[in-house]
Amino acid sequence: MSVKSIEKSAGSPNRYLNLGCGRRYHSAWTNLDLESDDLEVISHDITQGIPFESASFDAVYHSHVLEHLNPAEGRQLIQECYRVLAPGGVLRVVVPDLERIARLYLENHQQAWDGDEVASVNYDWMKMELLDQLVREKSGGQMGIYMSRQEIKNAEFVQSRVGDELAVCQETVVPKVAKDKSLLNRLEESTLGFRRRMARRFVRWTLGRSAEAAFDEGMFRSQGEIHRWMYDRYSLREICRLIGFESFRVCSAEESSIEDYSSYQLDSVEGQVRKPDSIFIEVRKPQSDAIREVA
Questions:
Q1: Are residues 163 and 121 in the same domain?
Q2: Domain span at residue 192?
Q3: What confidence tens digit (pLDDT) does each residue in 2-22 have?
Q4: Does residue 226 fall inside a structural domain?
């Protein structure tokens, strides 16, 4: 894949790369996200490749990114991670753990069937956790509505699954930090918004309101919130093995082969796991720098 290479800062303290960083990043890392209003974060679409030279990094990390790509895009991302890692470098991947979700769903399903009222409530949540981000048509989906309730019967259980996301949804007033955007960014957003509004009106005028609703759903589903695939330890191991990684292992949120990893607080803060529904895995690029092509 051909991408324009971005030069790393000569003052970069190490060779660590955080892809799709969102709001969770550290200045000691090179941070990439689709959109950025922060000088610490480079704006880049990772479906177009990773814009750095081969063997540029000793560690690559991405959390809750892979599941938002379709399987082919996901394999390409892992392949690109292999390319930009130096021999012996570490790839750390964090995704929702399909295996654990499925086990909890089945456990609570059986207990609910047997008449356990607590399990019945937990079953409803696990069904949403399994399906909602795959099928939702609006931002937040059924999970967002559920977590925004003033009273949640199984709040402790939900907290154990989503971590700090529950507190965010429970806040009635979310303070917003104003950030100045460049004139270019404001013009780009204004132009894009105008084009979408005109396209939406054209669809309604020519094909009717049902087509307009389909257009709205399609625009939402293309914006990166939904899950396009799910993973477990087996599928992650097989993808990494086929690409050429070795030493696959499942880690805890604070355990890592990356030096001083817990100090960066990417997966946990003061011992509290940020996304408890996750599986954390690490692999290494062999000392040989040959890259295997995936059929």
A1: yes
A2: 183-221
A3: 455 565 543 455 699 999 999
A4: no
